[in-house]
Amino acid sequence: MFGIGGFELFLILIFGFLIFGPDKLPDIAKTIGRAIAKFRGAQEDMTEQLKGATFVDKDNPDGPLKNPLEVMENAASEAQAKATEARKKADEATNAAVERTESFAERKARYDRERAERKAAEQKAAEEEAAKAAAEEAAATEARENPKADVAAKPVVEEGD
Question: Which tens digit of pLDDT belongs to each residue from 128-151?
């Protein structure tokens, strides 16, 4: 194991006892053992992936094996193209969002403009209402001053037998 003999391992254990103490040494050994086991598992997974990966042309499965570097370069270029496309879409979405947002001054100006338009519409409606009321009052005043003109203006409705 790593070219370490029994005597060297004994010296390492003695120094471990002196530095960490007998209470911590088993925990440290467990942690190191787990790390080595995970490293070996990852190494085995990688070798299985490399052994299981076939570089066969999908269009021509009976043909010769492809160059693994070519396959990797093609995959990388496809991934880069997709990433570029995704970045482009993200930039378009960001630009659209930026165009839609208004600054505080623009929002305030729009709000003031809408408020002025609302007040102008309310004032115009109030003026029309006042003019209508004034016309009705003038008609009522004239009807009081000249009752005959009012009677002549109204149509006569006769009741039939």
Answer: 999 999 999 988 888 888 766 555
CA distance 146 to 161: 33
HEC profile of the chain: CCCCCHHHHHHHHHHHHHHHCCCCHHHHHHHHHHHHHHHHHHHHHHHHHHHHCCCCCCCCCCCCCCCHHHHHHHHHHHHHHHHHHHHHHHHHHHHHHHHHCCCHHHHHHHHHHHHHHHHHHHHHHHHHHHHHHHHHHHHHHHHHHCHHHHHHHCCCCCCCC
Distance CA 29, CA 9 (A): 13
pLDDT band at 97 (very low <50, low <70, confident <90, very high): low
Lookup: tokens for 51: 């052994």
CA-to-CA distance for 32 and 136, rounded, in angstroms? 101
Please report, to the nearest 10 degrees, the dihedral formed by the alpha carbons of residues 128, 133, 139, 143 taken in order. 170
Q: What is the pTM of this model?
A: 0.30
Helix axes 25-52, 6-20, angle to 10 degrees: 120
**Measured distance CA(116)–CA(123) in Å, rounded:** 10
Report residue 52 as tokens. 């299981």
